[in-house]
Task: inverse folding
């Protein structure tokens, strides 16, 4: 029996809709290092100063909140970055190769260091950028522990021209998740991250919840308002390379605030 015009149009509409939908029904987008823009660049120019070993920033982890840098494995291979480099804290955990240039009097030839971004060098608008405002925009400036500075230049140099480039981080052990908060305010500090080093997105899952996105609190501290009491906890973290790493049940159900747990690790 021939189809009426109305029935035929309904059939055609249904067929086209079905054909358009089918290719997407079972597809999922996965981050990968090849799909993300490269964060690793050629050498760029900047300047560097240093601070004394007794500076209290080593005990608190600076603006990235990594805690005691010595205790958490960062040691003196760290750096505070000026505003144009700090990226409002997203850069926390990234690694840079730094070398001294253009000053044969003070540079130690053939040397370079790898440092991890752990702090922010705040601008001082009481000075001009080319005066005492070393970390004022638009300056690209590194503030190093004196122990790191002395590996590439003589300390008397003070404010040195350098070159830097982003490199992959190499870390021992897995990614570290430190649980903080109170009540339903759940916060996690993510540290000891290899590969790109910095985290751009985080999801958390309790054994009685689905995957929930977390927001950046500051540095690499992420938070959510949710109750995970007496639940195993998993984390899905994505770095600036676009690579996603999932650590299932990394936190046991008898966890408490203040504890740290070790998960999987990115390739470096």
Result:
């Amino acid at each position: 029996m021939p189809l009426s015009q109305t029935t035929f149009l309904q059939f055609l509409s249904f067929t086209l809709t079905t054909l358009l939908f089918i290719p997407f029904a079972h597809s999922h987008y996965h981050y990968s290092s090849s799909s993300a823009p490269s964060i690793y660049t050629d050498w760029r120019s900047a300047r560097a100063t240093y601070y004394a070993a007794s500076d209290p920033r080593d005990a608190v982890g600076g603006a990235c909140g990594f805690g005691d840098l010595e205790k958490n494995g960062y040691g003196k291979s760290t750096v505070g970055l000026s505003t144009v480099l700090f990226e409002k804290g997203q850069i926390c955990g990234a690694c840079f190769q730094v070398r001294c240039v253009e000053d044969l009097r003070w540079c130690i030839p053939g040397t370079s260091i790898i440092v991890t971004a752990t702090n922010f060098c705040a601008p001082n608008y009481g000075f001009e950028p080319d005066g005492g405002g070393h970390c004022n925009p638009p300056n690209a400036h590194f503030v190093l522990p004196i122990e790191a500075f002395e590996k590439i230049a003589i300390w008397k140099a003070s404010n040195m021209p350098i070159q830097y480039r982003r490199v992959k981080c190499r870390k021992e052990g897995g990614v570290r998740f430190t649980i903080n908060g109170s009540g339903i305010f759940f916060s996690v500090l993510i540290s000891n991250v290899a590969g790109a080093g910095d985290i751009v997105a985080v999801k958390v899952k309790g054994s009685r919840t689905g995957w929930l996105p977390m927001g950046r609190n500051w540095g690499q501290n992420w938070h959510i308002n949710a109750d995970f009491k007496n639940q195993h906890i998993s984390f899905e973290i994505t770095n600036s390379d676009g690579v996603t790493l999932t650590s299932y049940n990394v936190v046991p159900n008898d966890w408490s605030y203040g504890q740290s747990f070790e998960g999987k690790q990115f390739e470096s």
User: Anything to note?
Assistant: The CA atoms of residues 4 and 10 lie 10 Å apart.
